[in-house]
């Protein structure tokens, strides 16, 4: 497939038009108030974009992953932030791949039309962090229900979601052969449960992230997705798609910073000439551009392999790593080019700078990608 087939120019044009209705001052206001961008998410939902990856038989657009990547990249290239709703696009993949026919029929059409939000993903916990299999939240089977106890942290959008994909331990770690066994995935209907408390966490950027506390939270046994004890591999099976989509957002950010910085460098006169005439200003922008283009090629390769039915762990991880680095280099160059104005709210540079920093840490930190490459690609000894 040529790279042009993966670009989806019509989708990009339509998304850019929609994003133009939500200019910098819209995002500045949301950021200032740490408010959820409800109108933006409603417009994306009405346009069907968040249902891009849901098959047509369940009411979605049935588009390939490249279309989802094009949508998210374009939102970020336009100066917006898809983090408020990107998970509505892909969290459903766990249900689609591993859910029962009844779960798919019940939930996917409502997720596709936006009447149900599935954009909360409860995996990370305060004590275990990146070491997912050490998580402590338990789900104990009691007759026709499970009783959940424990705590999650950084469960983003929980206050703006009806459903949550939850990973919990159903068999104690010392009773399973492998530590990755005994974890199970549940599709929790947060509208109807008792024993769940949600506490927002204020962060350096506007992200609607929260802490969750489960205190004997009872959920029906039918909330289990797939087989009990196999949840860890179900979560892993969605990681390549997530890495690819997040890399696309980083590429969009990098393009936004590079366009902003180049334009400003040409417009701003100091010492009676444009600052962009100085190579000290040009080079960091040009370097960030080259990093972005290289990352974009890796992203396209990851998408090409994924859409051909492969399992491109290496390329998806590399795309995420390189794209996050490129967006951070572009962010740095942009702030420096803007000088003092890089710190002023009205130029959006400082907001995007704060938003772009996240991708070095979440949804997977750079170190963990490097450790994947060292172990699984280069065959070096396992470090943890
Ligand atoms: C804004 C935000 C939104 C998030 N949204 C979600 C969400 O919706 N759902 C969810 O489940 N999680 C979410 N997360 C959690 C995110 O995935 C984690 O923060 C991330 O995976 C890192 O885990 P940690 O914070 O526990 O860091 P830790 O695991 O405590 O690690 C701290 C640092 O040490 C490094 N480190 C740890 N172990 C190693 C090692 N073996 N080798 C080298 N370096 C190591 C890490 O790379 C990191 O830099 C979110 C986080 C943030 C900040």
Account of the 3D structure:
By secondary structure, the chain is an alpha+beta fold. It has three domains: 3-112, Butyryl-Coa Dehydrogenase, subunit A, domain 1, CATH 1.10.540; 118-231, Butyryl-CoA Dehydrogenase, subunit A, domain 2; 236-377, Up-down Bundle (Butyryl-CoA Dehydrogenase, subunit A, domain 3). 47% of the residues lie in helices and 15% in strands. The chain contains 13 helices and ten strands. The strands form three sheets. Strands 1-4-5-8 form a four-stranded mixed sheet. It has a four-stranded antiparallel sheet with strand order 2-3-7-6, with no helix packed on it. Strands 9-10 form a two-stranded antiparallel ribbon. It starts with 8 loop residues before the first helix and ends in a 7-residue tail after the last helix. The mean pLDDT is 97.
A few lines on this structure:
With 384 residues, this protein is an alpha+beta fold.
Layout of strands and helices, then pairs:
Elements: H1 9-20, H2 24-33, H3 38-46, H4 65-77, H5 86-90, H6 93-98, H7 101-112, E1 118-122, E2 138-142, E3 145-153, E4 163-169, E5 183-189, E6 196-201, E7 209-220, E8 224-225, H8 231-237, H9 239-267, E9 269-270, E10 273-274, H10 279-307, H11 313-338, H12 349-357, H13 366-377
Parallel strand pairs: 1-4
Antiparallel strand pairs: 2-3, 3-7, 4-5, 5-8, 6-7, 9-10
Helix pairs in contact: 1-4, 4-9, 9-10, 9-11, 10-11, 11-12, 11-13
The chain binds flavin-adenine dinucleotide.
């Amino acid at each position: 497939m040529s790279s042009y087939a993966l670009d989806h120019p019509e989708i990009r044009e339509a998304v850019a038009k929609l994003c133009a209705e939500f200019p910098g001052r819209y995002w500045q206001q949301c950021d200032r108030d740490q408010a959820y961008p409800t109108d933006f998410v409603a417009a994306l939902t009405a346009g069907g974009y968040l249902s891009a990856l849901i098959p047509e038989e369940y009411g979605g657009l049935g588009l390939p992953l490249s279309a989802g990547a094009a949508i998210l990249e374009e939102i970020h290239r336009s100066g917006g932030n898809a983090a408020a709703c990107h998970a509505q696009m892909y969290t459903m993949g766990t249900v689609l791949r591993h859910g029962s026919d009844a779960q798919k029929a019940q939930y996917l059409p409502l997720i596709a039309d936006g009447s149900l939000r599935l954009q909360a993903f409860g995996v990370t916990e305060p004590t275990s962090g990146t070491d997912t299999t050490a998580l402590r939240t338990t789900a104990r089977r009691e007759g026709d229900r499970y009783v959940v106890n424990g705590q999650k942290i950084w469960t983003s959008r929980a206050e703006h979601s009806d459903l949550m994909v939850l990973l919990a331990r159903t068999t104690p770690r010392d009773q399973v052969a492998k530590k990755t066994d005994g974890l199970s995935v549940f599709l929790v209907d947060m509208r109807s449960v008792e024993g769940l408390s949600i506490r927002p966490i204020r962060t350096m950027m506007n992200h609607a992230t929260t802490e969750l506390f489960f205190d004997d939270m009872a959920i029906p046994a039918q909330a289990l997705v797939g087989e009990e004890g196999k949840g860890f591999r179900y979560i892993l099976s969605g990681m390549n798609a997530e890495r690819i989509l997040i890399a696309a957002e980083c590429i969009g950010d990098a393009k936004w910073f590079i366009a902003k910085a180049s334009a400003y460098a040409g417009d701003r006169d100091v010492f009676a000439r444009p600052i962009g005439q100085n190579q000290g200003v040009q080079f960091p922008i040009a370097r960030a551009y080259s990093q972005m283009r290289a990352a974009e090629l890796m992203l396209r390769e990851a998408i090409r392999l994924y859409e051909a039915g492969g399992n491109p762990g290496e390329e998806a991880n590399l795309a995420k790593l390189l794209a996050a680095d490129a967006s951070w280099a572009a962010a740095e160059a942009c702030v420096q080019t803007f000088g003092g104005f890089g710190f002023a709210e009205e130029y959006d540079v400082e907001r995007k700078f704060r938003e772009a920093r996240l991708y070095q840490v979440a949804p997977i930190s750079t170190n963990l990608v490097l450790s994947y490459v060292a172990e699984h690609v280069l065959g070096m000894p396992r470090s943890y």
